[in-house]
């Protein structure tokens, strides 16, 4: 009953959100509504619905989501992701359940894009540079690697803008191998994104899983995205979607 009530509150909050005429949102793409939580998820790789029950269930795994080398995608078991997002005053939390029938990751550091990973883009000043078609210092590109579940540990990398390695290490990360794929659970500090979190904060956002299936190969063989078209248009914020922080209890 509690879960049903809280999900109903989320829907009411989403329906009641109104912005001024000067507020801009990306059209024709996804909007992620991210609810505030007082009890954050434990970042341990166990992506429990009970910890993320306030979050909508987001899914990339349809044919139309594949926007880089689509001929290499063989269906949802090849690559698809269910994911959840919540926030508190310190972190943005994301729990992802990845279906991947062949986990291949041989790279570390800046080269993790050549193996299985998630790519996330954030435009932290969406209103200030809405029309810009090139990324700049307020646009963050994260890579989240599960490792290889043998020798390589899970890893976070930030390709752009330049950030201190010690700040990237503050990202909490856990991964687990599961039947037919793996999970990734991570918490990004707001201090790393250099934004002050508050209800109705709007950012540009894209969630893009990447796949490599050939054992022993370093290559990006396919990619899909919550913002289809963004993968082949690297770093162009106008292709990304919206991310809006909400507080389900703020108006009640």
Short descriptors:
252 residues; mainly beta; Immunoglobulin-like; eight-stranded mixed β-sheet; five-stranded antiparallel β-sheet; 13 strands; 9% helix; globular
Helix-strand pattern, N to C? Answer: HEEEEEEEEHEEHEEE
Q: What ranges have pLDDT less than 50 throughout 5 or more consecutive residues?
A: 1-9
Tally of separate domains:
1
Calculate Rg over CA atoms: 17 Å
What does this structure look like?
With 252 residues, this protein is mainly β. The chain has a single domain (2-14, 30-246), classed as Immunoglobulin-like (Sandwich). The protein contains 3 helices and 13 strands. Strands 1, 3, 6, 7, 8, 11, 12 and 13 form an 8-stranded mixed β-sheet that branches. A 5-stranded antiparallel β-sheet has the order 2-4-5-10-9. Strand 4 (80-87) and strand 5 (91-99) form a beta hairpin. Mean pLDDT is 92; it is low at 1-9.
Write a brief caption for the model.
The protein is mainly beta. 9% of the residues lie in helices and 33% in strands. The protein contains 3 helices and 13 strands.
What's the helix and strand layout?
Layout: H1 2-16, E1 31-35, E2 58-60, E3 66-68, E4 80-87, E5 91-99, E6 117-123, E7 139-145, E8 155-160, H2 165-168, E9 172-178, E10 181-189, H3 190-193, E11 202-211, E12 222-224, E13 241-246
Parallel strand pairs: 1-13
Antiparallel strand pairs: 2-4, 3-12, 4-5, 5-10, 6-7, 6-11, 7-8, 9-10, 11-12, 11-13
């Amino acid at each position: 009953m509690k879960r049903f009530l809280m999900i109903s509150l989320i829907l009411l909050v989403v329906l009641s959100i109104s912005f001024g005429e000067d507020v801009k949102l990306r059209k024709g793409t996804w909007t992620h509504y991210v609810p505030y939580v007082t009890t954050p998820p434990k970042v341990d790789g166990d992506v429990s619905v009970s910890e993320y029950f306030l979050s909508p269930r987001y899914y990339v795994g349809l044919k139309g989501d594949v926007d880089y080398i689509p001929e290499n995608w063989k269906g949802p078991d090849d690559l698809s992701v269910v994911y959840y997002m919540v926030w508190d005053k310190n972190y943005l939390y994301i729990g992802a359940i990845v279906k991947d029938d062949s986990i291949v990751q041989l790279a570390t550091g800046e080269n993790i894009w050549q193996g299985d990973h998630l790519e996330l883009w954030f435009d932290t000043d969406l209103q200030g540079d809405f029309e810009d078609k090139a990324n700049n210092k307020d646009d963050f590109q994260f890579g989240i690697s599960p490792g290889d579940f043998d020798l390589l540990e899970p890893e976070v990398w930030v390709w752009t803008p330049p950030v201190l390695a010690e700040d990237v290490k503050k990202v909490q990360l856990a991964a687990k191998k599961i039947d037919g794929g793996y999970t990734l659970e991570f918490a990004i500090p707001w201090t790393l994104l250099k934004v002050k979190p508050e209800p109705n904060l709007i950012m540009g956002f894209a969630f893009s899983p990447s796949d490599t299936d050939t054992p022993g190969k370093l290559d990006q063989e396919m990619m899909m995205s919550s913002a289809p078209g963004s993968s082949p248009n690297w770093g162009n914020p106008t292709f990304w979607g919206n991310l809006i922080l909400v507080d389900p209890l703020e108006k009640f």
